[in-house]
Protein backbone atom coordinates (compact mmCIF):
# COMPACT_ATOMS: atom_id res chain seq x y z
CA UNK A 1 0.00 0.00 0.00
CA UNK A 2 1.22 3.51 -0.75
CA UNK A 3 2.67 5.48 2.13
CA UNK A 4 0.64 8.07 4.05
CA UNK A 5 2.82 11.17 4.44
CA UNK A 6 2.54 14.91 4.00
CA UNK A 7 1.12 15.86 0.60
CA UNK A 8 3.57 18.00 -1.39
CA UNK A 9 2.35 20.29 -4.16
CA UNK A 10 4.76 22.52 -6.08
CA UNK A 11 4.31 26.06 -7.41
CA UNK A 12 6.29 28.45 -9.60
CA UNK A 13 3.91 31.39 -10.07
CA UNK A 14 6.44 33.81 -8.55
CA UNK A 15 8.28 33.63 -11.88
CA UNK A 16 6.30 36.11 -13.95
CA UNK A 17 6.42 36.91 -17.66
CA UNK A 18 6.49 40.45 -19.08
CA UNK A 19 3.68 39.82 -21.54
CA UNK A 20 2.43 42.68 -23.73
CA UNK A 21 -0.93 44.21 -22.91
CA UNK A 22 -3.78 42.23 -24.41
CA UNK A 23 -1.81 38.97 -24.67
CA UNK A 24 -4.28 36.08 -24.75
CA UNK A 25 -2.39 33.80 -22.35
CA UNK A 26 -3.88 34.11 -18.81
CA UNK A 27 -0.61 34.09 -16.85
CA UNK A 28 -2.41 35.31 -13.72
CA UNK A 29 -4.29 32.02 -13.35
CA UNK A 30 -1.39 30.25 -11.61
CA UNK A 31 -1.25 32.64 -8.65
CA UNK A 32 -5.05 32.80 -8.59
CA UNK A 33 -5.21 29.01 -8.29
CA UNK A 34 -2.69 28.80 -5.46
CA UNK A 35 -4.55 31.51 -3.53
CA UNK A 36 -7.90 29.81 -4.19
CA UNK A 37 -6.69 26.39 -3.01
CA UNK A 38 -5.49 27.97 0.22
CA UNK A 39 -8.61 30.07 0.77
CA UNK A 40 -10.87 27.05 0.23
CA UNK A 41 -8.72 24.92 2.56
CA UNK A 42 -8.10 22.44 -0.23
CA UNK A 43 -4.40 22.76 0.55
CA UNK A 44 -2.54 24.08 3.58
CA UNK A 45 0.57 26.24 3.45
CA UNK A 46 2.54 23.27 4.83
CA UNK A 47 1.63 21.29 1.69
CA UNK A 48 2.84 23.84 -0.89
CA UNK A 49 6.51 24.05 -1.87
CA UNK A 50 8.44 26.26 -4.26
CA UNK A 51 9.46 24.38 -7.39
CA UNK A 52 13.19 23.80 -7.82
CA UNK A 53 14.80 24.76 -11.12
CA UNK A 54 15.50 21.89 -13.48
CA UNK A 55 19.20 21.55 -14.23
CA UNK A 56 20.74 21.86 -17.68
CA UNK A 57 21.45 18.12 -17.62
CA UNK A 58 17.85 17.30 -16.76
CA UNK A 59 16.53 19.42 -19.62
CA UNK A 60 18.81 17.52 -22.00
CA UNK A 61 16.95 14.30 -21.18
CA UNK A 62 14.20 15.49 -23.52
CA UNK A 63 15.63 18.45 -25.45
CA UNK A 64 18.55 19.15 -27.74
CA UNK A 65 21.48 21.09 -26.33
CA UNK A 66 21.17 23.65 -29.11
CA UNK A 67 17.57 24.47 -28.17
CA UNK A 68 18.24 24.59 -24.41
CA UNK A 69 21.18 26.93 -24.98
CA UNK A 70 19.10 29.13 -27.26
CA UNK A 71 16.45 29.50 -24.56
CA UNK A 72 18.98 30.22 -21.83
CA UNK A 73 21.03 32.73 -23.81
CA UNK A 74 18.23 34.48 -25.69
CA UNK A 75 19.23 33.38 -29.19
CA UNK A 76 15.96 31.67 -30.04
CA UNK A 77 15.08 31.80 -33.73
CA UNK A 78 12.18 34.11 -34.42
CA UNK A 79 10.04 31.36 -35.95
CA UNK A 80 10.35 29.26 -32.76
CA UNK A 81 9.33 32.20 -30.56
CA UNK A 82 6.36 32.76 -32.84
CA UNK A 83 5.37 29.12 -32.41
CA UNK A 84 5.75 29.38 -28.63
CA UNK A 85 3.68 32.56 -28.44
CA UNK A 86 5.78 34.33 -25.79
CA UNK A 87 8.49 36.98 -26.21
CA UNK A 88 11.88 35.80 -24.98
CA UNK A 89 13.13 36.95 -21.60
CA UNK A 90 15.42 35.37 -19.05
CA UNK A 91 12.31 35.17 -16.87
CA UNK A 92 10.72 32.92 -19.49
CA UNK A 93 13.73 30.61 -19.31
CA UNK A 94 13.67 30.57 -15.48
CA UNK A 95 9.93 29.99 -15.31
CA UNK A 96 10.22 27.13 -17.81
CA UNK A 97 13.02 25.55 -15.76
CA UNK A 98 10.85 25.85 -12.65
CA UNK A 99 7.93 24.22 -14.45
CA UNK A 100 10.10 21.22 -15.27
CA UNK A 101 11.73 21.20 -11.83
CA UNK A 102 8.30 21.16 -10.22
CA UNK A 103 7.28 18.21 -12.38
CA UNK A 104 10.38 16.24 -11.36
CA UNK A 105 9.86 17.06 -7.68
CA UNK A 106 6.16 16.17 -7.85
CA UNK A 107 6.91 12.86 -9.56
CA UNK A 108 9.41 11.89 -6.88
CA UNK A 109 7.00 13.00 -4.14
CA UNK A 110 4.22 10.93 -5.70
CA UNK A 111 6.51 7.90 -5.60
CA UNK A 112 6.83 8.36 -1.83
CA UNK A 113 3.32 9.54 -0.94
CA UNK A 114 1.06 8.16 -3.67
CA UNK A 115 0.00 11.45 -5.23
CA UNK A 116 1.50 14.88 -5.79
CA UNK A 117 1.11 17.76 -8.18
CA UNK A 118 2.59 20.74 -9.94
CA UNK A 119 0.54 23.96 -10.06
CA UNK A 120 1.97 24.51 -13.55
CA UNK A 121 3.16 22.22 -16.30
CA UNK A 122 1.49 19.90 -18.70
CA UNK A 123 3.56 21.61 -21.40
CA UNK A 124 2.85 18.86 -23.89
CA UNK A 125 3.44 20.85 -27.10
CA UNK A 126 7.19 21.28 -26.52
CA UNK A 127 9.30 19.13 -28.85
CA UNK A 128 12.94 18.11 -28.47
CA UNK A 129 14.24 20.96 -30.61
CA UNK A 130 11.58 23.64 -30.20
CA UNK A 131 8.62 24.85 -28.21
CA UNK A 132 5.17 25.78 -29.43
CA UNK A 133 1.67 26.44 -28.16
CA UNK A 134 2.76 28.32 -24.99
CA UNK A 135 5.07 25.42 -24.11
CA UNK A 136 8.85 25.93 -23.84
CA UNK A 137 10.23 22.75 -22.24
CA UNK A 138 8.29 19.50 -21.92
CA UNK A 139 7.94 18.90 -18.18
CA UNK A 140 6.33 15.46 -18.38
CA UNK A 141 8.84 14.14 -20.91
CA UNK A 142 11.78 15.23 -18.76
CA UNK A 143 10.24 13.93 -15.53
CA UNK A 144 9.33 10.58 -17.12
CA UNK A 145 12.90 10.04 -18.24
CA UNK A 146 14.21 11.03 -14.80
CA UNK A 147 12.04 8.31 -13.25
CA UNK A 148 13.15 5.71 -15.78
CA UNK A 149 16.83 6.64 -15.55
CA UNK A 150 16.81 6.53 -11.75
CA UNK A 151 14.88 3.24 -11.72
CA UNK A 152 11.95 4.88 -9.91
CA UNK A 153 9.49 3.52 -12.48
CA UNK A 154 9.54 0.84 -15.14
CA UNK A 155 6.21 1.38 -16.94
CA UNK A 156 4.78 4.89 -17.15
CA UNK A 157 1.38 6.01 -18.42
CA UNK A 158 0.66 9.58 -19.46
CA UNK A 159 -3.06 10.30 -19.27
CA UNK A 160 -3.48 13.50 -21.25
CA UNK A 161 -7.00 14.94 -21.04
CA UNK A 162 -6.20 18.45 -22.22
CA UNK A 163 -8.42 19.43 -25.14
CA UNK A 164 -5.33 19.81 -27.34
CA UNK A 165 -3.42 16.71 -28.47
CA UNK A 166 -0.01 16.32 -26.82
CA UNK A 167 2.08 16.31 -29.98
CA UNK A 168 5.27 17.12 -28.06
CA UNK A 169 4.80 14.22 -25.67
CA UNK A 170 4.38 11.90 -28.61
CA UNK A 171 7.26 13.26 -30.69
CA UNK A 172 9.68 12.84 -27.77
CA UNK A 173 8.40 9.69 -26.07
CA UNK A 174 6.31 7.59 -28.49
CA UNK A 175 9.17 5.25 -29.37
CA UNK A 176 9.77 4.22 -25.75
CA UNK A 177 8.12 0.90 -25.02
CA UNK A 178 8.11 1.71 -21.29
CA UNK A 179 5.70 4.63 -21.84
CA UNK A 180 2.01 4.53 -22.80
CA UNK A 181 0.46 7.83 -23.90
CA UNK A 182 -3.32 8.22 -23.89
CA UNK A 183 -4.68 11.44 -25.40
CA UNK A 184 -8.34 12.49 -25.46
CA UNK A 185 -8.60 15.69 -27.44
CA UNK A 186 -10.62 17.76 -29.85
CA UNK A 187 -10.44 16.26 -33.32
CA UNK A 188 -10.43 19.63 -35.11
CA UNK A 189 -8.49 21.60 -32.52
CA UNK A 190 -4.83 22.61 -32.23
CA UNK A 191 -2.35 21.18 -33.12
CA UNK A 192 -3.69 20.67 -36.61
CA UNK A 193 -0.88 18.24 -37.43
CA UNK A 194 -1.08 15.56 -34.72
CA UNK A 195 1.83 13.29 -33.77
CA UNK A 196 0.41 9.83 -32.99
CA UNK A 197 0.23 8.81 -29.33
CA UNK A 198 0.01 5.21 -28.15
CA UNK A 199 -3.75 5.72 -28.14
CA UNK A 200 -5.43 8.83 -29.53
CA UNK A 201 -9.16 9.36 -29.07
CA UNK A 202 -10.28 12.32 -31.16
CA UNK A 203 -13.57 13.93 -30.16
CA UNK A 204 -15.86 16.02 -32.37
CA UNK A 205 -16.65 19.63 -31.56
CA UNK A 206 -19.43 19.98 -29.01
CA UNK A 207 -18.74 16.66 -27.23
CA UNK A 208 -20.49 16.71 -23.85
CA UNK A 209 -20.07 14.93 -20.53
CA UNK A 210 -21.66 11.60 -21.40
CA UNK A 211 -19.78 11.08 -24.66
CA UNK A 212 -16.49 12.24 -23.15
CA UNK A 213 -16.73 9.96 -20.13
CA UNK A 214 -17.68 6.99 -22.29
CA UNK A 215 -14.59 7.57 -24.46
CA UNK A 216 -12.42 8.05 -21.37
CA UNK A 217 -13.62 4.74 -19.94
CA UNK A 218 -12.42 2.98 -23.09
CA UNK A 219 -9.11 4.81 -23.04
CA UNK A 220 -8.47 4.07 -19.39
CA UNK A 221 -9.13 0.38 -19.95
CA UNK A 222 -6.14 0.37 -22.32
CA UNK A 223 -4.05 2.22 -19.71
CA UNK A 224 -4.88 -0.25 -16.95
CA UNK A 225 -4.14 -3.17 -19.31
CA UNK A 226 -0.67 -1.65 -19.84
CA UNK A 227 -0.10 -2.14 -16.07
CA UNK A 228 1.79 1.11 -15.39
CA UNK A 229 3.62 1.62 -12.11
CA UNK A 230 3.45 5.40 -12.43
CA UNK A 231 0.98 7.88 -13.96
CA UNK A 232 1.40 11.45 -15.14
CA UNK A 233 -2.06 13.03 -15.30
CA UNK A 234 -2.31 16.07 -17.58
CA UNK A 235 -5.48 17.55 -16.07
CA UNK A 236 -6.12 20.40 -18.51
CA UNK A 237 -9.52 22.01 -17.95
CA UNK A 238 -9.93 23.45 -21.45
CA UNK A 239 -12.63 20.88 -22.35
CA UNK A 240 -14.89 23.10 -20.17
CA UNK A 241 -17.74 24.49 -22.25
CA UNK A 242 -16.86 28.09 -21.29
CA UNK A 243 -13.26 27.73 -22.52
CA UNK A 244 -12.36 30.08 -25.35
CA UNK A 245 -10.03 27.56 -27.04
CA UNK A 246 -11.78 24.30 -26.21
CA UNK A 247 -14.70 23.66 -28.61
CA UNK A 248 -15.99 20.88 -26.31
CA UNK A 249 -18.98 21.11 -24.00
CA UNK A 250 -18.01 19.63 -20.63
CA UNK A 251 -19.52 20.85 -17.37
CA UNK A 252 -17.83 21.18 -13.99
CA UNK A 253 -19.56 17.94 -13.02
CA UNK A 254 -18.22 16.15 -16.09
CA UNK A 255 -14.67 17.28 -15.35
CA UNK A 256 -15.02 16.20 -11.72
CA UNK A 257 -16.15 12.73 -12.78
CA UNK A 258 -13.27 12.59 -15.26
CA UNK A 259 -10.82 13.34 -12.45
CA UNK A 260 -12.46 10.80 -10.17
CA UNK A 261 -12.17 8.06 -12.79
CA UNK A 262 -8.41 8.62 -13.01
CA UNK A 263 -7.50 9.35 -9.38
CA UNK A 264 -9.81 6.86 -7.67
CA UNK A 265 -8.84 3.91 -9.86
CA UNK A 266 -5.14 4.72 -9.64
CA UNK A 267 -5.39 4.74 -5.84
CA UNK A 268 -7.26 1.44 -5.83
CA UNK A 269 -4.48 -0.04 -7.99
CA UNK A 270 -1.74 1.58 -5.83
CA UNK A 271 -0.32 3.47 -8.81
CA UNK A 272 1.32 6.80 -7.89
CA UNK A 273 -0.04 9.83 -9.74
CA UNK A 274 1.58 13.18 -10.49
CA UNK A 275 -0.77 15.99 -11.56
CA UNK A 276 0.15 18.56 -14.22
CA UNK A 277 -2.06 21.60 -14.70
CA UNK A 278 -2.47 21.79 -18.48
CA UNK A 279 -4.59 24.29 -20.37
CA UNK A 280 -7.42 26.50 -19.21
CA UNK A 281 -8.61 29.60 -21.06
CA UNK A 282 -12.16 30.24 -19.86
CA UNK A 283 -13.84 33.62 -19.95
CA UNK A 284 -13.81 34.71 -17.19
CA UNK A 285 -10.59 32.95 -16.16
CA UNK A 286 -12.05 32.34 -12.68
CA UNK A 287 -14.00 29.45 -14.23
CA UNK A 288 -10.76 27.71 -15.22
CA UNK A 289 -9.35 28.32 -11.76
CA UNK A 290 -12.46 26.75 -10.22
CA UNK A 291 -12.18 23.75 -12.55
CA UNK A 292 -8.52 23.23 -11.63
CA UNK A 293 -9.42 23.47 -7.96
CA UNK A 294 -12.11 20.84 -8.41
CA UNK A 295 -9.40 18.32 -9.30
CA UNK A 296 -7.91 19.00 -5.87
CA UNK A 297 -11.37 18.54 -4.35
CA UNK A 298 -11.39 15.08 -5.91
CA UNK A 299 -7.87 14.48 -4.55
CA UNK A 300 -9.13 15.30 -1.03
CA UNK A 301 -12.23 13.15 -1.52
CA UNK A 302 -10.18 10.13 -2.63
CA UNK A 303 -7.14 10.56 -0.38
CA UNK A 304 -8.72 12.22 2.66
- Please state roughly what percent of the residues sit in beta strands, choosing from under 5%, 5-15%, 15-25%, 25-35%, 35-45% or over 45%: 5-15%
Tally of contiguous helical segments: 10
* Total beta strands: 8
The largest sheet, given as strand count, sense and whether it forms a barrel, is: 8 strands, parallel
Mean pLDDT: 96
The level 1 CATH classification is: Alpha Beta
Series of secondary-structure elements, N-terminal to C-terminal: EHEHHHHEHEHEEHEHEH
Low-confidence stretches: none
Q: Kindly state the percentage of residues in helix.
A: 40-55%
Q: Please state the CA-atom Rg, rounded to the nearest Å.
A: 17 Å
Distance between the termini: 15 Å
Tell me the CATH superfamily. Answer: Histone deacetylase domain
C-alpha geometry: globular
Keywords:
304 residues, alpha/beta, Arginase, Chain A
Q: What do you see in this structure?
A:
- This protein has helices at 29-39, 56-59, 65-73, 78-84, 90-113, 139-149, 167-173, 209-226, 252-268, 286-303; strands at residues 9-11, 48-50, 115-118, 156-160, 179-186, 199-203, 230-234, 273-276.
- Strands 2-1-3-8-7-4-5-6 form an eight-stranded parallel beta sheet, sandwiched between helices.
- The protein starts with 8 loop residues before the first strand and ends with a helix.
- Helix 5 (90-113) crosses helix 6 (139-149) and helix 8 runs parallel beside helix 9.
- The protein is built from ten helices and eight strands.
- It has one domain (9-303): Histone deacetylase domain (Arginase, Chain A, 3-Layer(aba) Sandwich), CATH 3.40.800.
- It is α/β, with parallel strands linked by helices and 304 residues long.
- The model has no long low-confidence stretch (mean pLDDT 96).
Amino acid sequence: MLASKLLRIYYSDHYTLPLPEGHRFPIEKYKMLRDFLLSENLLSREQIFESPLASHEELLLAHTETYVNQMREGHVPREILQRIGFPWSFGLYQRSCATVGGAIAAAKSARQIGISGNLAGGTHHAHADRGEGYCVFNDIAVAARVLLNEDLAKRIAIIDLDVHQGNGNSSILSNQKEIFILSLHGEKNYPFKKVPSTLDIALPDGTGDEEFLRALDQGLLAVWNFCPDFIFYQMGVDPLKEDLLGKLNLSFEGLIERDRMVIQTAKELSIPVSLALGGGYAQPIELSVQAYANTYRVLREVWG
